[in-house]
């Protein structure tokens, strides 16, 4: 039976304010944050005790004990304990990918409602024992005789007692994500000033959105935090210009702590449903998830920038939907780094990149920058990896709903491993 | 009635020591003193540590049993005082009742008041209730009543009979297994201030007639309620009877069954089946 597909509705979202690493949520685990976020969504939409189709979420930095993070969070939440759940992980694309997965099941008629989300903490990080120590301990536990045990223990060296912390580095290149972004920034000639301007706009837009109450029904205070801890409403290009570059080397280095996203803790969740389910529960439909696309680049051997995959995904999505890059009322381009957003936009305007890398006859062209990240993005809010997708989907859906029917928005999220997840929402 | 306000939480370790030194020669009626603290804000790090030891998630509200550890030092101060008729060392917690009138937010300023009442006759001694009332902005938000048994003690003439039984229906075998480690008492002591020696080590427990260290009743209750995370009414009454002690280490099972909008629960030894705790949770 091949059912007719339908577009999944975005009913609303909830997140906790994002906290700086080792800040307000230093004691909170991913499960704590995800459960609190789910319960906030439950409270907002009266879902207490309700059986939903599925809850899909994930975390990028994950303890081994959190193998069933989402299901355990559901069990601790006020949702019906019979609500199924599973984990996904696609680095910074996790949250958006979760929303796409839920939306696709709704589109196929397999479920009527679902929650997509994500949580990440860089504070309660999964430290692992030194890998060689781990091997010693495995050998030790397999040892049968005293001699075998002693032999195993003889392999222990002092350095092995140092735990391994998760690194924000690419396994195959050994470079930090920021160092990769710095290479791309240099390649595309992205200047310091324009990066700082984008960062300032992010802070101002996010602060203004908080001030006009935009986030009142999207954010629930948690552990004493009511706004994102990283938000600096009074920052300025002058202040940011004073910062020393932290990524890239030498004269041309442009990327600072001010125009790069800091490590953050947080969680987000989005409620999706069929139109019928939303109507039956007397809940609003803010927007629909129209279509989505992923892409990946070979950042290891083919010379493409680590965070440039969305530049490849978007034209595929546009072509399938018969749209141009200019056919959008809002653009939500995840600000992993200011330079990433600027390099992506520049690539779409570049005839040779569009021809040679994207196989297009003409460049996608420029966008109206006044429609970009109008309520701020990751530079100001912070970026708890798996929580960013949910933040953006809920924000954009509400923006589109406010703007009226038939408005269209584009989401573009770059992810570690050279991947990108993009999607179209429409009110 | 005299009401005495304390500037800060007294040190329970010092109080236990003082109570032990002055255990002999006590008697008479319960003092009508009330001890109080005002404007108490739970330290978020303390709450997080308490939550971790008891199995609660961090939700932005105090774990439902947490106000007990805020009021406990005041109750110990009351019991350690020479005017208190029973010797604190050796008192056994036999019942606890909590009325949580609403969730208490982290960071809320709380007024605490504790007192003792209901000196009662028990078949193996006498019981007394240590009560606590917690208010926020002048409105009561949480009540606690802990019944302690003093073996061999005598209640005053005309005292009522002790009331140490809780209700609840039949329960299935427990589905939830906990391995309670040998250091469970020390871990809970660290986050609750309940440094009663019967919980801390085998040696100190033996001094009070227990063959091994025993788990704190309030930890068992907290952990049982934490296991019902997300399934509890917002406002609730939890009524728990502590039966046979949990000797450390142990494996226990938690049995739960929905009842009247709340839960009946029992904690049993996983091997012998002896009942350690029996309780009810009802919406308030």
TrEMBL record, chain A:
Signal peptide: none annotated. It comes from the Bacteria. One of its GO terms (cellular component) is cytosol. This is Acetyl-CoA C-acetyltransferase. InterPro entries: 3-ketoacyl-CoA_Thiolase, Thiolase, Thiolase-like, Thiolase_C, Thiolase_N. Residues 9-275 form the Thiolase N-terminal domain. Pfam families: Thiolase_C, Thiolase_N. CDD domains: thiolase. The keyword Phosphoprotein does not apply. Residues 284-426 form the Thiolase C-terminal domain. It comes from Geodermatophilus sabuli.
UniProtKB/TrEMBL annotation, chain B:
Residues 186-256 form the MaoC-like domain. SUPFAM superfamilies: Thioesterase/thiol ester dehydrase-isomerase. GO terms for cellular component: fatty acid synthase complex. One of its GO terms (molecular function) is fatty acid synthase activity. One of its GO terms (biological process) is fatty acid biosynthetic process. It holds the Pfam family MaoC_dehydratas. InterPro entries: Fatty_acid_synthase (IPR003965), HotDog_dom_sf (IPR029069), MaoC-like_dom (IPR002539). Belongs to the enoyl-CoA hydratase/isomerase family. This is Acyl dehydratase. It comes from Geodermatophilus sabuli. The lineage of its organism: Bacteria, Bacillati, Actinomycetota, Actinomycetes, Geodermatophilales.
